[in-house]
Amino acid sequence: MTIRIRLTLLFGLLVGSILMLFSVSVYYLYNQFREQEFQKRLVERAITTVRLRDDVGDIPAGDLPVLADEQITIYDQQGRVLFSLGKVSGRYPVTPSFLRHVSAGQTPYIRQGDRETIGVRYVSASKRVLVSVASAYDRYGFSKLERLRTILLFGWLLCLFIVAIAGYLFASDALRPVAELIDQANTISATNIHKRLHVGRQRDELADLAGTFNELLDRLEKAFVSQKSFVSHASHELRTPLTVMMGQIEVTRLQTRSTTDYETAFDALLDEVKNMIRLVNGLLELARANTGFPNLLPKYPVRLDELLWQAQSQLIHKKSDYQIDIDFDDLPNQEDDLVVMGDESLLQTAFLNLMENGCKYSPSHAVTVRLAFQPQQVQITVSDQGYGIPPQDLPNIFEPFYRSDSTMTVSGHGIGLALTKRIINIHQGTIDVESTLGQGTTFRVCLPNRVAADTSATSALVSTRDVTALPEH
Ligand code: ADP
Question: Tell me: domain 295-458, CATH 3.30.565.10, correct?
Answer without folding.
Answer: yes
